[in-house]
Amino acid sequence: MELIFEISKKGRRALEIPKPDVPGRSYRDNTEDATVNPLSGSIPSKYLRNTGLMLPEVSEPDLVRHYTALSDSNHGVDSGFYPLGSCTMKYNPKINEDMAALEGFTGVHPLQPEETVQGCLELMYKLEKSLSAITGMSRFTLQPAAGAHGEMTGLMIIKAYHDKTHPRRKIIVPDSAHGTNPASAAAAGFETVELKSSEDGGIDPDALRALMDENIAGLMLTNPNTLGLFEKNIREIADIVHDAGGLLYYDGANANAIMGISRPGDMGFDVLHLNLHKTFSTPHGGGGPGSGPVGVAARLEPFLPVPAVKYENGRYSFDYDLPDSIGKVRSFYGNYGVAVKAYTYIIRLGFEGLKQASVNAVLNARYLMQKLAGVYELPYKRSCMHEFVLSCTFMKKYGVSAMDVAKRLIDFGFHPPTVYFPLIVKEALMIEPTETESKETLDRFINAMLTIAEEAEKDPELLKNAPHTTPVTRPDDVAAARKPVLRYI
Amino acid sequence: MSGYISNTGADTQEMLDSIGIKSTEQLFDEIPEEVRYCGIPDNSGQTEKTELGGIPGPMADMQTESYIKNLAARNKSAEKLICFLGAGIYDHYIPPVVRHMISRQEFYTSYTPYQPEISQGMLQAIFEYQSMMCSLTGGEVCNASLYDGASALAEAASMACRATGRNEVAVLCSVNPEYRKVLKTYAHSGGWTVKELLPAICSENDAIKRYEAQIDHGIAALIIQSPDFFGYIEDIKAAAEAAHSSGALLIVTADPLSLAVLEAPGVLGADIITGEGQALGNPMSFGGPHFGFMTASEKLLRKMPGRIVGQTKDKNGKRCFVLTMQAREQHIRREKATSNICSNQALNALAAAVYMTAAGKSGLPETAQLCYHKAVYAYNKLLETGLFKPLTDRPFFKEFALESSIEIQKLNAVLLENGILGGCDAGRYYMEHKNVWILAVTEKRTREEINYLAGIISDNFGNKSGVVFPWN
């Protein structure tokens, strides 16, 4: 497809700018000559732009056609099944979008006087209460902009907590953890200690016990973990960490399995983040915006970022008076528009609806696992929660990889599962169907997977050259990284 | 069922049979009893009564709408007020095409484009965004976005420490206080330090002395904002020379719209250029979601945080786009990654690309110029009231600061009563600038609105017997 710069033509424009109604040289006088800065004579010339501006010149219909054509080559949740493991690609309700787009939210400046933003503050306050109830935590901050940002914030809180008494600088992270866990630990100034998974894909309490000492600030855990397996020994694990003076961090990436079923606060976790863009149905936006609220147990409340929202005498306000706060991790109050979407979802479903979402997420995953485990390898023979991991090592003998299976699924109209993750499973396919898919969709996916398994044996080239139905196929990643072309010149 | 779940009772039964269990409760057998929250629904969907407080609902769609609309109606938005408030977030016009294009489900319901064959739309759009941002800022490489202007600046500082092997950055106090606060949070956890350079407001000559103040400290980077928090345009070239003379990098955080008329920081010697992208096609939204942008000189590419899109060819030789340079990122490098960032603000960056395309090569400078002329008009109108005094004669762009003879809180309260959202009270952030008022004037403000602002101030605070300044 042509780039927007390639369809540009000098003289075309989409947006009509109003004529100035105040004194000042009219831009019309000088934009004819693109080399003259419109503000010359007003601002000292050493500050003015002399460098050309490479922006498109297109009409509004050109613009709309261009972006519509681009969107046509993108697969979204509305396009079809998106079983991307650990990403919770559930349906994004339209009502959420409309509510977040209300002018009463989008048109509000973050520094407006509190009396003019009572609606915004009330929603923040109530969302915080709801998330606390769902997770069993004491308080939340909505400031972190994404899951990894939440992890970093949570770890900063853990660090600040220990610094009050005895600084601790190490964090234990299981080898099955999301890549953001060790990266966030490093960003928060911790050294990572890796914990090997046990035979059954979980945490071995004895191995954990052996790692604990007075330098261990805490353990980061996803539960259910990235294999989709629930840590059965969670209470014992919590005791081991707490007895050694450490804290437990809950990575909420997989919280879609447990809403209304089990609460991290009751499992013994001290800090957690949730991904509103996973569990609470807000869209992923092609990479973002997300939102990663952080919840803490009561003893960690003093360390939360500022400001907190409080409610007193019938009035909502911001509270900046938290002397032990870690500070701010982002300007203002987080991705507020995303919070509006999540709160809309929560009140639309209510507690019972949220619980049904988790029940059906697990039902759908278990059904898929049951149907596929006979043909694909199931590395850990346990009942999965909302996602599961299969291995494609048996296809090696045909020269076929997990990536080939993923690419072939595209020809069947499906977005591929997460591939090559978690790292502890070879040739991994990580599948998360979510609750919003119908049995018919799941059955079509099962059929596609079984067909592909047959194709791997009978016609491996078909897989190795897949996808066959897309505008481009198998981009050269190596060339892209070796000689980077990162902008149009 | 919520309406978002398709499984019927019969579907559920079939699936349970196929799994070989009798009830949905058995799906959770692996969860030990002691950490179960409450009763698990059985086949009929019945649950035990719970005592989970704090969650309203369930509500029907119609009720949900009224409930949320009622909350929205309890805010006074800038559509109902005349907004002169800025301080990093601005009330700019957003053409309808922006919302229409980013509302294409193929964009907004998609995930990060890890599978290029079915993500070319987002990948190409980001590539085009990167190209526009490089041109606008004068950087040579650009990432696919960061969370916001504040965290983008903190990431830039951390990147400068990695690139130079030094562990202190110097930041002017004229940089947005919210940004400096975030910078300190990141510094504390990243193990580097932040040195703040005073004064916050100074003359042009003193500005250059301020750039030079850091030279003997062996810092990783000098951080400036242009236009700064008070609206003044910084001498980026002089700052770059001062920084480079001590082997430090220059980081500039900039208002992207200003760069349509002001020289690109990269051209003037800045090594890393970041900023808040909200002004480009994103609504104020109570402070988010917007996006942080980051561009840099090519030699810093491998130190950059975040996703980057590159051009390549597919196996048939066709041009296409992929996420590239991934060896820097958390999903490959884990604890050794350049940053922990995963989700970014891609849709907001897409909004910016659509906005810049709609405004285009001539429209973006025209918009910037309108802001400037209206700001100058407002500046003069306010000085005419006799109630304000300029702080320096340095040039500004769309925002300016005035010393006020009126207590700022009182001033803003009177304006609010008259439907005006007044400027930022600098005293909120600067003890030493209690009477400083920072006003932003965008292209949306009209001559009538500006006259009205000046009129309300004169009517309420003007002294018929002649103005008395506290400083006279």
Q: What percent strand of chain A? A: 5-15%
Sheet bearing the most strands of chain B, described?
A: 7 strands, mixed
CATH class of the largest domain in chain B: Alpha Beta
CATH architecture of the largest domain in chain A: 3-Layer(aba) Sandwich
Q: Could you please describe the fold and organization of this structure?
A:
The complex is a heterodimer of chains A (489) and B (472). With 489 residues, chain A is α/β, with parallel strands linked by helices. Chain A folds into 3 domains: 1-73, no CATH class; 94-349, 3-Layer(aba) Sandwich (Aspartate Aminotransferase, domain 2); 356-464, Aspartate Aminotransferase, domain 1 (Alpha-Beta Complex). In chain A, 35% of the residues lie in helices and 11% in strands. Chain A has 15 helices and 12 strands. Chain A has helices at residues 27-30, 60-72, 94-100, 103-106, 118-135, 147-163, 180-187, 205-211, 234-243, 264-267, 336-372, 402-411, 439-458, 460-464, 477-482, and strands at 139-141, 170-174, 191-195, 216-221, 247-252, 271-274, 294-296, 308-312, 315-319, 388-391, 418-419, 428-431. In chain A, strand 2 (170-174), helix 7 (180-187) and strand 3 form a beta-alpha-beta unit. Chain A is globular and about 75 Å long. Mean pLDDT of chain B is 93; it is low at 39-52. Chain B is built from 13 helices and 15 strands. Chain B folds into 3 domains: 16-48, no CATH class; 96-354, Aspartate Aminotransferase, domain 2; 361-461, Aspartate Aminotransferase, domain 1 (Alpha-Beta Complex). Chain B is 36% helix and 14% strand. Chain B is an alpha/beta fold and 472 residues long. In chain B, helix 3 packs antiparallel against helix 11 (346-384), helix 5 runs parallel beside helix 11 (346-384) and helix 6 crosses helix 7 (177-190). A 7-stranded mixed β-sheet of chain B has the order 2-8-7-6-5-3-4, with helices on both faces. A 4-stranded antiparallel β-sheet of chain B has the order 11-12-15-14, with helices on one face. In chain B, strands 1-13 form a two-stranded parallel ribbon. Chains A and B meet through helix 2, helix 3, helix 4, helix 5 and helix 6 of A and helix 1, helix 2, helix 3, helix 4 and helix 5 of B.
